[in-house]
Specification:
Blueprint lengths: L6 E5 L5 E6 L6 E6 L12 E8 L5 E5 L2 E7 L5 E11 L2 E4 L6 E2 L8 E8 L2 E8 L2 E8 L2 E5 L8 E7 L5 E7 L2 E9 L12 E7 L9 E4 L5 E5 L6 E7 L2 E8 L8 E6 L4 E6 L12 E6 L5 E6 L1 E2 L5 H22 L14 E2 L2 H23 L3 H4 L8 H24 L4 H6 L1 E5 L8 H13 L16 H6 L1 E5 L6
Parallel strand pairs: 4-26
Antiparallel strand pairs: 1-2, 2-3, 3-4, 5-6, 6-7, 7-8, 7-9, 10-11, 11-12, 12-13, 14-15, 15-16, 16-17, 18-19, 19-20, 20-21, 22-23, 23-24, 24-25, 27-29, 28-29
Helix pairs in contact: 2-4, 4-6
């Protein structure tokens, strides 16, 4: 796991890689899923998935199988823990829970989260607090303590998973790097008793041997990436008591917005430059995949996005569909009836009043979706860059909810919440005060599910859009007591 604040990584035993990369323009962070390449469920070289948009950058991540756990620091101390799982489908990989994160047991310890690992024993974290270090494991009964070695004045910089039930605590003192290797010595894997938890210390090669960020391969061997701004990065590997240089990576490896991790099953180092235009998701990320055995570079180019998740592409597709629908409606049209019958004391609602009422209905639906799914109103309305598929899903839910609540309100009372605010009411074109459910549903289906059709209201002499013509309705304004 990388401890850089702007990018975190977690590799799972199943071969998946998770990269959490902070946006440079705001507090948001993007979760990228790099699926395993090997095996029957493998994905193509350079393939990545946009998995989730976080409102805040986590302070630690760890992965196991097809799941990643993320730790978020709370203002009142302790950590909120959230999980994200993926599942295999016929067309590739997808999130197991669309649009939300899974709640996990919160961690009450206060302090700095040094690192996290997820192995056969479970989810393990190391916390540095006022009383020193504390090692915790998530068991069925909650977070429990694990015994630590006598660290003395040495500082731990990272926690790495070494395979099986082993973890490593990596630190540096007096210019030398070392690692405490912890492993279950026996028992029922409770791990809470010092006698069951065995630690051994080993000195890591000094000098330039393992400088930079550390990662672990499938065999528990250490991989180091030394990246310096403006210079080519150096990849080194430790194995069988020696360290050798694997290869070099481009200078952009040290840029902000670059996530680094290892695909264990494929023995590959992955670099993903997600932020290329100041906002996550507006351009395709750049990816580099290198063998950590031979140094061979498989790809150093734009990533292959495995689902239509790039915000720019989805917005273009959405705009194209709306334009085509508008052109069809404009050319074919719906024959408008003759002048509507307006009850005495009422008047046809101006187009501006109808626009304001519809805006109010849309905002109501957006607020409800943002509260239910979590996130801001801008995210619910797909106004925030980098949301990709999540943004399209949110906007679809908003439009469906707007259709639902306006249809119910106009069928029962002739008004929606937005129309109530501006004093408008829906009536039949022949003057009937109440319109049937079928006609109201048809009207709002055209309005909310085929939005370009409402633009015809600007050219109709009576301010009616295609939905009004189809349902034989009209929007009027009158005294509030009559509405």
């Amino acid at each position: 796991m990388s401890n850089a604040r702007s990018a975190l990584s977690a590799s799972s035993d199943a071969g998946h890689l998770w990269l959490v990369i902070k946006s440079g323009t705001n507090a948001n962070a993007g979760v990228w899923h790099v699926p395993v390449r090997a095996g029957g469920a493998g994905s193509r070289v350079g393939g990545v998935r946009w998995a989730y948009l976080l409102e805040a950058m986590p302070v630690g991540v760890a992965a196991r199988s097809e799941r990643v756990a993320m730790f978020f620091a709370r203002d009142d101390g302790g950590f909120t823990v959230r999980g994200l799982s993926v599942e295999r489908t016929q067309g590739g990989w997808q999130n197991a829970s669309v649009g939300r994160l899974d709640a996990m047991v919160e961690l009450a310890d206060e302090g700095e989260l040094v690192g996290a690992a997820w192995n056969e024993l479970g989810l393990i974290v190391l916390i540095r607090g006022g009383d020193g270090y504390a090692l915790r494991r998530l068991a069925r009964s909650g977070w429990e303590s694990l015994a630590l070695p006598e660290l003395g004045e040495s500082g731990v910089a990272a926690v790495v998973e070494l395979g099986g039930d082993a973890i490593g605590l990596v630190g540096e003192s007096a210019g030398e790097r070392w690692m405490w290797r912890g492993q279950l010595a026996g028992g029922d894997q409770a791990g809470g008793d010092r006698a069951d938890w065995r630690w051994s210390q080993e000195e890591l090669p000094g000098g330039d041997a393992l400088k930079g960020e550390l990662f672990v391969d499938a065999e528990g061997e250490l991989i180091a990436l030394e990246a310096v701004a403006g210079q080519a990065g150096v990849v080194r590997r430790q194995g069988r008591g020696s360290v050798w240089k694997v290869g070099e990576v481009p200078a952009w490896a040290a840029d902000p917005g670059v996530g680094v991790g290892v695909l264990r099953a494929d023995e590959r180092l992955v670099l993903l430059q997600a932020e290329r235009s100041g906002a996550l998701g507006d351009e395709r990320p750049r990816i580099l995949e290198m063998s950590i055995l031979s140094g061979r570079v498989f790809i150093d180019d734009e990533a292959v996005v495995l689902a239509p998740v790039i915000g720019r592409d989805l917005r273009l597709l959405f705009a194209t569909i709306l334009l085509l629908v508008f052109m069809v409606v404009a050319m074919v049209g719906v024959r408008m009836p003759e002048a509507p019958v307006v009850p005495e004391g009422w008047m046809l609602a101006p187009v501006l009043a109808r626009v304001l009422g519809a805006t109010g209905d849309l905002l109501v639906a957006g607020l409800v979706v943002s509260l239910v799914r979590g996130g801001s109103l801008a995210q619910a309305l797909w106004l925030e860059s980098g949301m990709g598929l999540e943004g399209a899903i949110s906007l679809g839910l908003v439009l469906f909810l707007a259709f639902t609540h306006t249809t119910v309100g106009e069928w029962l009372f002739g008004i929606s919440l937005g129309k109530l605010l501006v004093g408008c009411k829906v009536i039949g074109a022949c003057g009937e005060s109440r319109v049937g459910l079928g006609r109201i549903a048809a009207r709002n289906a055209m309005k909310w599910l085929l939005p370009p059709s409402v633009l015809l209201g600007w050219v109709d002499p009576y301010g009616r859009h295609t939905g009004d013509a189809l349902a034989r309705t009209v929007v009027v304004m009158g005294p509030l007591q009559e509405s």
